[in-house]
């Protein structure tokens, strides 16, 4: 949002472990999941747990140190997960030593797929961006253990969240009735409206141009950015529009394509290319409107209005571009957060030149944005590598991560370093008395080692997020969250109802086939999309062949599976 570590009041709940999670043949150390027969529990097991664990709700979780290996991304902004202040606190509080299995954040998807396919995975996936298809596939295979009984017996905070948050249970419960993974609940207004394009308002003012409202007006603005030297340095060095599909909602095409038809390909790992009209699931990337959108993007690409690097560069490259000295050369950027490009500091004011652009109206009158509310993926899973004792310890650790104490520290680090309690009169996003306040760092650094930022399962509700102090001046230091919420109001009226919804599980028998079809169809769509935009394929001559290509990819079956899931 970062050393005062406080222990919550103990809640005495010593309960026998359900044998859904007791490993079969546990007497010989087998890690095979149990049969789910609760009658197999014994008094000896209960007594052994009392010797190993503190009562539910009290700490440390385990009386003697226990090591659990956990898979997670290594964010470039975090210096060292092993020595991180939150890691240290968590280990001291719980007596659980984390053996890290870390992967660079931009390689998480590839490494996840490899380790799950090979069987070389740890006891716990702390953050895995687990799709519903993956949860079903690896749950059915026994790789991911059902969490239902563990939650019921050892996780009162998670259990409460399942009751208090209406959409949570249905969003994470698989068709077989099991919960295989826990989400990161992040009720965030500006996140719900994340499909943003930030445009250089200072350049518009310099050129005497109004903020564009249609795709044609936007095209004319980008031409002016390219040709009329808005940064006044006497050079034609301006880059009218850029982005990166490795940034959050940073794909340069999605914002513009939604002026023609629904496009949920917002970043590297996103995209179903589905829409729902009158409760019927349909595919968008073979429609005339899709072709029209690609022609628009190809026109801008050919005229040098879209940065060629936008299709290949990472977030670091965007930041370097944005902060190039001595002159600003960036006209517009697609991303949820302008802070991906600029430091939000009064000492580096370039970010103040940008405003969010409301959804553009296309030539057919379409004006829409996506709605990201709800749970799209889950993060935390316990695998069949975990012993019975590790399963209990892991779910109790996850349960602690769902407390407000843990959420504040996880995201912001130790109190007095990264955050403090708000003083009387300090206001939150809604203009009410704030509960917490960020401590502004005198020296802005690219990395920190006080927090996990937003790694792992957590419960950041609207009420929690709104409880932080913010500067009511949206362009001043400390006013960024208010700025994001203010800019997001431009998008809420245009949220489409045609986007395939979050929270839909594929039927158990269809999950594996759905995953295969989705991979093939989406890879084909994305590859051709890039080629049509850049002109390496002629959309006028090769469109029909592209559309026909879907016949060999079982598109009808793909649609039928997603229709069946929606109907249920």
Query: What is the number of helices?
Result: 20
CATH level-two architecture of the largest domain: 3-Layer(aba) Sandwich
What is the structural class?
alpha/beta
Number of domains: 2
Tell the overall outline. Answer: globular
Number of strands: 14
Main sheet summary: 6 strands, mixed
| CATH topology name of the largest domain | D-Maltodextrin-Binding Protein, domain 2
Question: How is this fold's topology laid out?
Answer:
Blueprint (H helix, E strand, L loop, with lengths): L42 H10 L13 E9 L10 H10 L1 E9 L3 H11 L5 E2 L6 H9 L7 H7 L1 H9 L3 H5 L9 E5 L2 H4 L4 E4 H7 L7 H13 L11 E5 L10 H4 L16 E4 L2 E4 L4 H15 L12 H8 L7 E5 L19 E3 L21 E5 L5 H14 L2 H9 L6 E3 L14 E3 L19 E3 L1 H4 L14 H9 L22 H24 L4 H11 L5 H13 L1
Parallel strand pairs: 1-2, 1-3, 4-14, 6-9
Antiparallel strand pairs: 3-11, 4-11, 5-9, 5-10, 7-8, 12-13
Can you tell me about this structure?
With 568 residues, this protein is an alpha/beta fold. It has two domains: 1-190 and 374-469, Periplasmic binding protein-like II (D-Maltodextrin-Binding Protein, domain 2); 194-370, 3-Layer(aba) Sandwich (D-Maltodextrin-Binding Protein, domain 2). The chain contains 20 helices and 14 strands. The protein has helices spanning 43-52, 85-94, 108-118, 132-140, 148-154, 156-164, 168-172, 189-192, 201-207, 215-227, 254-257, 288-302, 315-322, 388-401, 404-412, 462-465, 480-488, 511-534, 539-549, 555-567; strands spanning 66-74, 96-104, 124-125, 182-186, 197-200, 239-243, 274-277, 280-283, 330-334, 354-356, 378-382, 419-421, 436-438, 458-460. The strands form four sheets. It has a six-stranded mixed sheet. A four-stranded mixed sheet has the order 6-9-5-10. Strands 7-8 form a two-stranded antiparallel sheet. A hairpin with a 2-residue loop joins strand 7 (274-277) and strand 8 (280-283). Helix 4 (132-140) runs antiparallel to helix 18 (511-534) and helix 18 crosses helix 20. It starts with 42 loop residues before the first helix and ends with a helix. Residues 1-44 have low confidence and may be disordered.
């Amino acid at each position: 949002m970062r050393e005062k570590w406080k222990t919550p009041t103990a809640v005495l709940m010593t309960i026998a472990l359900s044998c859904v999670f007791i490993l079969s043949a546990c007497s010989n150390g087998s890690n095979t999941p149990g049969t789910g027969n609760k009658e197999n529990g014994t008094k000896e097991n209960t007594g052994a747990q009392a010797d190993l664990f503190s009562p539910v709700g009290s700490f440390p979780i385990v009386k003697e140190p226990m090591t659990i290996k956990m898979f997670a991304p290594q964010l470039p902004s975090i210096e060292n997960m092993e020595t991180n202040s939150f890691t240290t606190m968590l280990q001291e509080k719980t007596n659980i030593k984390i053996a890290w299995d870390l992967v660079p954040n931009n390689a998480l998807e590839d490494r996840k797929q490899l380790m799950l396919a090979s069987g070389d995975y740890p006891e716990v996936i702390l953050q895995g961006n687990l799709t519903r298809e993956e949860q079903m596939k690896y749950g059915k295979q026994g790789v991911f253990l059902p969490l239902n009984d563990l939650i019921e017996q050892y996780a009162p905070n998670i259990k409460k969240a399942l009751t208090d948050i209406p959409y949570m249970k249905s969003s994470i419960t698989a068709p077989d009735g099991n919960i295989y993974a826990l989400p990161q609940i992040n009720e965030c207004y500006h996140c719900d409206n994340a499909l943003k394009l930030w445009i250089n308002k200072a350049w518009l003012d310099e050129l005497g141009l109004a903020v564009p409202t249609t795709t044609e007006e936007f095209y004319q603005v980008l031409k002016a950015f390219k040709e009329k030297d808005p940064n006044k340095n006497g050079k034609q060095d301006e880059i009218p529009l850029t982005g990166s599909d490795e940034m959050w909602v940073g794909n340069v095409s999605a914002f513009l394509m939604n002026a023609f038809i629904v496009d949920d390909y917002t970043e590297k790992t996103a995209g179903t290319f589905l829409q729902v009209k009158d409760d019927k699931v349909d595919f968008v990337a073979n429609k005339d409107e899709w072709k029209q959108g690609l022609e628009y993007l190809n026109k801008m690409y050919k005229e040098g209005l879209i940065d060629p690097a936008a299709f290949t560069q990472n977030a670091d490259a965007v930041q370097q571009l944005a902060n190039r000295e001595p002159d600003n050369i960036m006209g517009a950027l697609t991303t949820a957060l302008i802070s991906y490009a600029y430091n939000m500091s009064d000492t580096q004011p370039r970010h103040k030149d940008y405003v969010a652009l409301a959804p553009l109206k296309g030539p057919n009158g379409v004006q829409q944005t996506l709605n990201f509310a709800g749970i799209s993926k889950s993060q935390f899973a316990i695998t069949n590598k975990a012993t019975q004792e590790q399963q209990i310890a892991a779910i109790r650790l996850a349960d602690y991560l769902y407390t407000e104490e843990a959420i504040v520290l996880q995201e912001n680090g130790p109190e007095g370093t990264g955050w403090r309690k708000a003083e009387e009169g300090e206001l939150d996003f809604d203009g009410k008395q704030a509960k917490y306040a960020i401590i502004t760092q005198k020296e802005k650094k690219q990395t920190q080692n006080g927090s996990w930022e937003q790694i792992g399962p957590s419960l950041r509700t609207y009420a929690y997020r709104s409880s932080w102090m913010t500067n009511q001046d949206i362009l001043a230091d400390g006013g960024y969250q208010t700025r994001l919420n203010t800019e997001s109001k431009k998008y809420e009226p245009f949220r489409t109802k045609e986007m395939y919804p979050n929270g839909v599980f594929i039927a158990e028998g269809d999950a594996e086939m759905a995953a295969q079809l989705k991979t093939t169809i989406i890879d084909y769509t994305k590859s051709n999309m890039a080629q049509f935009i850049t002109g390496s394929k002629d959309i006028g001559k090769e469109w029909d062949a592209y559309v026909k290509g879907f016949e060999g990819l079982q598109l009808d079956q793909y649609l039928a599976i997603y229709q069946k899931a929606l109907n249920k």
